[in-house]
Design goal:
Blueprint (H helix, E strand, L loop, with lengths): L29 H23 L15 H34 L14 H6 L7 H4 L2
Helix pairs in contact: 1-2
């Protein structure tokens, strides 16, 4: 009976190619991970705005609802929440732009790197910890 010899092949990832030149960071790099987190956050915020109805021209209310004051208060709360979500979305989109132009992770005040732990917790952070509260 003929024996078969199996040899183990170790995959070390894709080698250089037109899609993966040797000087490009691997897909698992910190910037790639940040980009994925930012894209997920952008999608999530967009879904929240849509669910809130913030993409409509005006918040609608049931005109037959008996308590107009409660409707007005609810609409005010919805507008405030939509405003906060839009601000967060703007920050995420700004961070995605910084990834594209190579300035992601730099404080907008001093230009120093924003700490990895801060970026992990808040991928759209614009300021280092020293300038975050100023």
């Amino acid at each position: 009976m003929l024996g078969t010899t199996l040899t183990a092949v170790t995959d070390t990832g894709p080698g250089p190619s037109p899609d993966n030149p040797p000087d490009t960071a691997p897909a698992g790099s910190a910037e790639a991970e940040a980009g994925a987190r930012l894209e997920a956050e952008r999608t999530h915020l967009g879904e929240q705005l849509h669910e809130l109805g913030a993409d409509e021209a005006e918040f609608s209310a049931d005109e037959q609802f008996a308590d107009g004051g409660q409707v007005a208060a609810e609409q005010g709360e919805n507008r405030a929440l939509a405003g906060e979500l839009r601000e967060q979305l703007d920050d995420v989109e700004r961070a995605i732009g910084k990834l594209d132009d190579g300035s992601y992770g730099q404080c907008e005040v001093c230009g120093e790197p924003i700490g990895d732990a801060r970026l992990e917790a808040m991928p759209a952070a614009r300021f280092c910890i020293d300038h975050a509260s100023s």
